Automatic annotation (TrEMBL):
Residues 1-26 form the signal peptide. Keywords: Calcium, Cell adhesion, Cell membrane, Glycoprotein, Membrane, Repeat, Signal, Transmembrane, Transmembrane helix. One of its GO terms (cellular component) is plasma membrane. GO terms for biological process: anatomical structure morphogenesis; homophilic cell adhesion via plasma membrane adhesion molecules. Residues 31-130, 131-239, 240-434, 435-544, 559-656 form the Cadherin domain. InterPro entries: Cadherin-like_dom, Cadherin-like_sf, Cadherin_C, Cadherin_CS, Cadherin_N, Protocadherin/Cadherin-CA. This is Cadherin domain-containing protein. The keyword Calcium applies. It comes from Neogobius melanostomus (round goby).
Amino acid sequence: FRKLSRVRPGQGLVFLSLCFLSSTLGHISYSVPEELPKGFVVGNIAKDLGLDIKRLKSGRARIFTHESGEYLQLNSERGVLVIKERIDREALCGQRALCTLQLQIILENPMEIHSVTVEIQDVNDNPPFFEKKEVDFKISESALSGSKFILDRAVDYDVGINGLQTYRLEPRDNFVIKLHDQADGSKNVEMVLQKPLDREKSEHLSLVLTALDGGEPQMSGTMQILITVLDANDNAPVFTHPVYKASIKENAPLGTVVVTVTATDADQGSNGKITYSVSGIPDNARGLFEINSENGEILSIRASDEGSLVDSCKVIIDVADVNDNMPTINVLSKINAITEDAKPGVVVTMINIRDVDSAENGNVQCFINDNIPFELKLTNNDFYSLLTDGNLDRERDSQYNITVTCSDEGVPSLSSSVTLSLHISDVNDNAPVFDRSSYEAYIVENNSPGFSIFTVKATDSDWSQNARVSYILEDSSVNGVPVSSYVSVSADSGVIHAVRSFDYEQIKDFQFCVKAQDGGSPPLSSNVTVKILVQDQNDNGPQVLYPVQTGGSLVAEMVPRSADVGYLVTKVVAVDVDSGQNAWLSYKLQKAADRALFEVGLQNGEIRTIRQVTDKDAVKQRLAVIVEDNGQPSRSATVIVNVVVADSFPEVMSEFTDFSHDKEYNDNLTFYLVLALAVVSFLFITCVVVIISVKIYRWRQSRVLYHSNLPVIPYYPPRYSDTLGTATLPHVYNYDTCRTTDSRKSDCKFGRAGSQNVLIMDPSSTGTMQARSGVFVALLFELDAWTHQLLCSGGITKRFCCW
């Protein structure tokens, strides 16, 4: 524990709390008379302390006091301190010379404490009075001048000038009054015999004692003194000690003997019999003590004999304090929460501690828990602050239960405690933290868009809104394409979804950054790298690279008849664009005319002979090889390998002219070629007919002109040439074509270009029709040339006529 002790009997400790405390302490004093009416304005607090009245109106101002709460109140609307109940100074302070009300004005947000002292001035509203209206004395006529007789003091509840000032005794023929000042400021009253008494002259005397105060107007009280004069009594009682001292504990039960006083009288008989009585009791002891008149057991002491002679002594009783009051803890103001970024030295709480015992019993020591970032500090006289003594961290300790224990130094010690619950408010001082430094996630290709790939998770040790994490996909690109076109991130859950379907053969992996951002202000964030690896799926079958399979040609492998066992015929080469086991290929012989002659290597695809070739083996061998991958399910491709058992190439060619595949292909091609030849022949015949018709028409025209004696235009045989400058058929082509039933043995020859004679005609002549006919014929010959070129291309295995 850490301890803070203040030794001031009857006074208290004060602890003040507020989140943001202004340590300014103001003080102001007022003085008002007692007995003022309710609602009387004591003072303008707002004006005198320089406070903004809006702060008072907001309800954040209040009064704290131990005893004056029932007398004064704060009018927040007007900012003034007013009388709540009529104040009776005598009831409040008794005979204390200075009567004050102490209170504190507490303002919050920010907190200020202002001390206010209100002095209550006495008003002369109480006259002096005697507890007894009359007293009797029996005095021997033999009493000597100067004999003293103690009288009861008068009581005046007022103080100062308004209190008891003097006494007056009437008549004063035999007695006078003497006053003796006491240490406590009171005065003892003695009646002194000034002139001897004469019983024969006056057996009874009646005196009036008047007590006067100094107030304005002056007030008084009286007591009658009755004196009986007796015969001579020689000796007065005498106390064994002029002063007796005694001590009694404050909690002593009723009837406890405090002290016993003893007096002696030298007389005999009734004049020597002593009785004891009490006089001159202080105001604060009235009614507390009494004396046994027979044996002198206290309190207070006057001894007299039967002859009415008296003696007096003083008894001083010390009331010893007993530790019967524990410290009282009063929380002036308290907050429920403080932000975790509060700096050391911020005042958190202020408390008032009070122990009404005295001396060691009233000395108070206060303790708080150890190992917490708080301390107790004296700020001003009776005010103690509970302050922060270190850095706060809500994530480490979100709440402190601070126990303030106060113990006095009495035996046995008494203590009391109060627990203050203080919550630490969150400040956004922690960024989100991912549960991994980086992530790797896998996704199988050919996924559906929107597929959930993976979830990233970040936590924030802050609280509430400051701990609310949102996930954001950072801008980046993958192969020049924004990463947002590949994946998306759920802002709330951190789930990563695929935006598109992935193809392992196009992209095998990529990475991007995800940012986790909290909801604080300003927000804090952290990043993590996520790597997505696309897993291969067996979505691609094997592709055969060799032998090449084409629709218009045939590849055959030749095996000599002299081949030995294990002869390498060919090798099937295939690839699979998948990866891993999906790309592991195996080769099997699916179909063969003679399975006993060939085998295929399971791993390498090599086709080898497994026995010696014989004459009985067929010349043509057709092998179907299947290539399978190792995926689940597996995919495959089939390739046809043509093998011929022969020793020369011509033998091979002749053997493969009747393959069904070639026959089907050539049948289709022949159909279209015959159709093309029929169309060309039709066009050619039509052209010849047109030319002949033109010639006949021109011959007839020339005959008409000849008989009409018109000039004759020489006629030149037509040459099919460029007549319109279109560069169409600039030469005359001769074709020499020879065809056989086997297109691979056919031949096609192109002759030399013929002469380039040009048909010359008079533009004004009627040869326009002939020129157009020439163009048309030229186009026909062009088409004919293209057709023959097509016919002469390789791969045609059909019979047709030679032109």
